[in-house]
Amino acid sequence: MDNTVAWINKLNNRELNFLTFVLSHYNYQLLLPANKELIIRDVKDLYSRKFKVLGSIEKIFKSKIIDEDLFNWLKEDTRALLWMYEIYDKNFDRASMIKNKTQASPKLFENFIYNIDASYYPNDTPSSFYSSSVAIPNFNIDIQNNSYKPQFTDINFSLEKKIEYLNSARSKYIERKTDRKNLIWIDKNNEEQIYWAIDYLKNNGLLLNIRGFLAYTIDDLYNLICASLDTLDNNIDIPFGKQYTQSAHKQLTISKMRKAWSQKKFRDKKDAESAQEYFLTRRHMNKLKKLADEYGLSSKECLQKLIDEAYNSIE
């Protein structure tokens, strides 16, 4: 392969996405996720026109992104990643923060890293500012629409601010993550309860709406429920020297949700008993109850089990 582009084959997906962003500052199209063949084509073209520029890019572009270890706490924890996206989307800075919200990848984690990597301070923006809770770096707006594109070598990627931002967010997540005793009543293996909880949070305006997140499994939905509850105290300011304690609002919200689930279970039980009385004699209801006790199930669950077994035996 041409020596001018051989180094590109050594790049991982994150680096390829970032290199695509870099090339967009030299009027090449920003297509994401990155396509290596297109990058090689663009790099060859850039090399033929601006050899010195390409040499600078090859030498320094990796130094413009922070260490991937800083993202490790999000990589295997969907719940933390969903919470982080809420922080990223909603906590705007008082100094007119410009935000980068590019859909760089169908994978939520890769997409988040790209948006952090591609964020920078425009030259006319203060290089140091903080939100009330987490310091958030300035994000370039509308990259794909070419609204602002300084030369790559002149861009202030402010790595120290990104590091501070992620570390601060991690500390805040550990501090305000909903504890197990407030979630123990939610059974992640109970599909009916998980879907009920999703509907409950959505109907009460509490469910996170994370752009680009698609729940494929019950585990994904469970993590979305937990993350939605984790964010309830995100906007509370903690005075210097004071420790975080769960707010009355969060306690009440979880308590009301738990009570609503208990009420639903009670109504379902009464409905099931009424239905049984409608089509079962008292003698058969007593037999069903005895069978249910033997199996350690409710009468409804036992009846469903017996029907399923009988149905499967004739297939």
How does this model look, in words?
The chain is mainly α and 315 residues long. The protein folds into two domains: 1-176, no CATH class; 180-279, no CATH class. Helix content is 54%, strand content 0%. The chain contains twelve helices and no strands. It has helices at 13-24, 36-49, 51-60, 72-75, 78-90, 108-117, 159-176, 191-203, 218-230, 248-279, 282-295, 299-314. Residues 92-98 and 124-148 have low confidence and may be disordered.
Question: Which helices and strands occur, and which strands form pairs?
Answer:
Blueprint: H1 13-24, H2 36-49, H3 51-60, H4 72-75, H5 78-90, H6 108-117, H7 159-176, H8 191-203, H9 218-230, H10 248-279, H11 282-295, H12 299-314
Helix pairs in contact: 1-2, 2-3, 5-9, 8-9, 11-12
Structural class: mainly alpha
Number of helices: 12
Poorly predicted runs of 5 or more residues: 92-98, 124-148
Number of strands: 0
Radius of gyration (Å):
27 Å
Cα separation of the termini: 61 Å
Calculate the mean pLDDT score and round it.
81
Describe the largest sheet. none
Short description:
It contains 12 helices and no strands. It is mainly alpha-helical and 315 residues long.
Main attributes of the structure:
0% strand, 315 residues, elongated, mainly alpha, 2 domains, 12 helices
